[in-house]
Structures are given as C-alpha cells and as structure tokens.
Amino acid sequence: MTEWAFWGCTPFLAAALFTDIRSMRIPNWITVPAFFTGLVLQALVQGWQGFLFAICGAAAGFALLLIMHFMGAVGAGDVKLFAGIGAWTGMLFTAQVIMYSVFIGALIGWIIVLWRHETGTRLRNTFSKLAVFFVLHDLSVLKGRGKEQLRFPFMLAVIPGSVCAYLYF
C-alpha cells in the first residue's frame, strides 16, 4: 500500500464515521464510490497489477466483514465500506484494519458494559451460550439477538483501527 492510497481512502472513512454516528448506517452513496474510485485509481496508477491489487483487497475486506455480518457483529454498510477500503489499500492493510478495529471495538464494548454495570449478566449469557454451542453444536445460539446485543457505531473502532494499521504498517 502506498501513502496516497491511505489518504485517498480517508474522506470516505470520515463520511462513514459521520453517518454511522448520526444514524447507525453507512449509506451506499459512500460505499459505492469508495469501491469504484479505489479500483479505478489503483488501475490508473499501477495498471493491471493495481487493478488486481484493488480487486483482491476489496474481496478480502468484503469477505471478512461478511462473516462478521452473518454473526450479527456489523451491518451491511460496514461490509461494503470494507470492500472500498480494500480497493484503496489492498488485502494486507485491510486485514490489519479489521484486526485493529475488532480489538478496539471489543474494548469499546467492554467499556460500555462496565459503564452500564452489565458485566455479570453478559458473562453469564456468554458462558451459557458457549455451553449450549459445545453440547448441542448449534451455531445459531452464538448469534446476538435484539435487546441482548450491544450496539454502537462500528466506525468508532474503525477510525482508530485504520490509524493503528497506518502507523504500524
């Protein structure tokens, strides 16, 4: 990944942060241009190699976040946004952003749980779901449902996650 790719991706991240905080949604008018501009600019700057770099990055970002989406951890806008981040920055950087964002998101989640004094309840629910999963081998118990699921804008974790990935890349 080159430095221009990170900085070119930044306006899309800023717009996604703004909309995610306001409405807990990342609209297509942010995600679709992020994907296509990353694809086109990588192809213009590096030719076919850049085009393949962007496609592989977009596929990695999309696939990894799609798994998280099926688990109920992120929304569809996050999935599409990470395809755009991948198109701009490639597979390795995108995977690092995801790793840091998940770690920071877990930290934010625990801060919220501690703030609300829900630690005991959440730990009991988690351990009971894990027990059911290991005994019955039922994946559906691991997916969060409705009120029990802790929700906050994932972009609050993605922005520091992308900064960490940039600093340590």
From TrEMBL:
InterPro entries: Prepilin_IV_endopep_pep, Prepilin_peptidase/N-MTase
Domain Prepilin type IV endopeptidase peptidase: 10-109
UniProt superkingdom: Bacteria
Record's keyword annotation contains Membrane: yes
GO-annotated biological processes: signal peptide processing
GO molecular function: aspartic-type endopeptidase activity
A Gene Ontology term for the protein's cellular component: plasma membrane
Record has NADP as a keyword: no
Transmembrane regions listed in the UniProt entry: 26-44, 51-71, 91-115
Similarity field: Belongs to the peptidase A24 family.
Protein name: Peptidase A24
Source organism of the structure: Paenibacillus wynnii
